[in-house]
Amino acid sequence: MEGTKPVNKKLAAALSGGAVLVLTLSGCGSSGGSSGNDKLNSWAKQVCDAVKPQAQKIEDANTAIQKQTSDNSTPDAVQKTDAQAFQDMSDAYKAIGAAVDNAGPPDVENGKTKQANAVKELNEISGSYAALKTQVAKLDTKDQAKFAEGLKGIATQLGKLSQSGSDALKQLEEGDVGKAMAQQESCKSASGSAGAANG
Question: Staple 172 to which of 35, 114, 139, 158, CB 3.0 to 4.6 Å?
Fold first, then answer.
């Protein structure tokens, strides 16, 4: 019986939506010359350099969950992989929040408010993934039907999480901040292939 398989595929699809959040932060889609503001450019470099390894971590977590969907994985293996992936994502978003916090407000109008809102949002996303990890860890892997049902619930929440989310990040990146971030090598490479799809 392979009840968990289609559900885990759904989980993987919902998850790929979540990865877009980080790519938002990678200045994806922003173009135009440098803002000519050294303060802002050095702020963008600090944030982009910190985001790059975290974006990679989130991508790896996505890949791990997607790999489980293509194998004939047991509920135990799916649970273990998913729990670890959610933990990694939670840690990554927390680290990105800390990076934006440490960088201080960007040198733009309402920079302080934009920065505070983005940090709050990143910490909330981190908390949501931590809650999903707890949830997936509690699922009953002995009963495949129950496990599949539980995964379905998690996939639904993941879908909502990837839909909600990055408004404050988008606001942080409007205008000159986005332009400055788009100039940074670490942000360019963080957006990678998804940048081509979404940028």
Answer: 114
Dihedral of the CA atoms 39, 107, 52, 16 (nearest 10)?
Answer: -160
pLDDT tens per residue across span 8-36: 676 666 665 555 455 555 544 444 444 56
At 134, phi and psi to the nearest 5? -60, -40
Positive or negative, the Cα torsion across 34, 40, 41, 47?
Answer: negative
- φ, ψ at 29 (rounded to 5°): 90, -10
- What does pTM read for this prediction? 0.82
Gap between the Cα atoms of 94 and 49, Å rounded: 15
- Please state, rounded to an integer, the average pLDDT across all residues of the chain: 80
Do the beta carbons of residue 193 and residue 53 sit within 8 Å?
no
Question: Is the per-residue pLDDT at 127 higher than 90?
Answer: yes
Residues listed for the chain: 199
CB 179 within 8 A of CB 35: yes
Amino acid at 35: S
Residue 142: count other Cβ atoms within 10 Å of its Cβ. 9
Do 27 and 178 touch, CB atoms closer than 8 A?
A: yes
